[in-house]
Write a structure and sequence with these properties.
This protein is an all-alpha fold. It has 14 helices and 2 strands. It folds into 3 domains: 118 residues, Four Helix Bundle (Hemerythrin (Met), subunit A) (Up-down Bundle), CATH 1.20.120; 59 residues; 85 residues, Arc Repressor Mutant, subunit A, CATH 1.10.10. 67% of the residues lie in helices and 1% in strands. α4 packs across α5, α5 crosses α6 and α11 packs across α13. The chain is elongated, with a radius of gyration of 34 Å.
Length: 295
């Protein structure tokens, strides 16, 4: 899915990038001071200076993902979200540079955005699949360059699967995904441009006539079953109802306690009642078992 920014958006992006690159870098001591003031005192001025100084990290990281066809401005915005998350979680006393800590959050935020929006089909639901998604092109280019030919081949796929600790089938599936683009069902085809892909999709749902016939048949079968149940004794009706006509059937043991008989006696009564139902239903259909299976 390729996204193209309009001219005004591109200009705004360039202005933002220039201002980010003009922001002064921070010395380590001043960086830690700002982070401490923000964490301990909620000093928003310190937060603004800290974040503003490292928006260049966001721009740099976003540029690495521009080949996925997503708007550069959106990539930068997602990176800024990661930068803010880093600022809220940073612990100055650990002695780590904020830039090092923030880089991980920025990259993670941008990667999540790419995975959500690169395709309408969900991509990379596990850590291994995410690694495969973001490293396949790089590793493929490396292998192709080394072999002096285009295409991975079985050996190249085995190398990538081993390096990323995934199955070869995962490499093949991701390779196919990256080579294809999403297509709109409303995209027109043919010279006249009046037919779209959606017109060729078969509707697997039953047509209205089949629906009405099915409803009528169900009503008829229910009437037959009601008539057949009426021919059973009260105890047999209870057994059939509790064992076959409820969402959670009662066990033979529980039903035996309810009726004051043994579990084996309930099983015998159930079998006798089912035989009676089959005899009754056979007056209407050749195979009564087919009707009884629906209940």
């Amino acid at each position: 899915m390729a996204h193209i920014d309009d001219i005004q958006t591109q200009k705004s992006n360039l202005d933002y990038i220039r201002s980010s690159m003009d922001a002064p870098l921070l010395e380590k001591d001043h960086e830690l001071e700002l982070a401490t003031r923000w964490r301990d005192k909620g000093d928003e001025k310190a937060l603004h200076e800290l974040v503003q100084s490292y928006t260049r990290l966001v721009v740099s990281m976003a540029s690495r993902f521009r080949n996925y066809g997503l708007p550069m401005g959106d990539l930068i915005q997602e990176g800024n979200i990661g930068l803010m998350q880093a600022a809220s979680r940073f612990e100055p006393e650990r002695g780590l540079r904020f830039s090092t800590y923030a880089s991980w959050w920025i990259r993670s935020s941008i990667q999540d955005y790419v995975l959500r929006n690169w395709s309408i089909v969900r991509t990379g639901t596990t850590a291994a699949q995410k690694s495969l998604f973001f490293n396949l092109r790089r590793l493929r280019a490396k292998i192709e360059s080394r072999n002096g030919q285009e295409g991975l081949g079985d050996e190249g796929r085995r190398q990538i699967a081993k390096e990323l600790d995934v199955n070869i089938s995962d490499v093949e599936d991701m390779e196919a995904r990256l080579a294809a683009n999403d297509q709109s069902l409303n995209a027109t085809i043919g010279e006249d441009g009046e037919t779209d892909w959606q017109s060729f999709l078969a509707d697997s749902r039953p047509n209205p006539e089949d629906v009405v016939i099915g409803m009528k048949d169900a009503q008829t079968r229910s009437a037959w079953l009601k008539q057949a149940l009426g021919e059973l004794s009260d105890r047999e009706q209870t057994i059939i109802r509790e064992r076959h006509l409820v969402y959670e059937p009662v066990t033979l043991e529980e039903l035996g306690k309810q009726l004051g008989v043994s579990k084996e006696r309930v099983r015998q009564l159930e079998q006798r009642a089912m035989d009676k139902l089959k005899v009754s239903m056979s007056r209407h259909v050749s195979n009564p078992q087919d009707v009884l299976m629906d209940y």
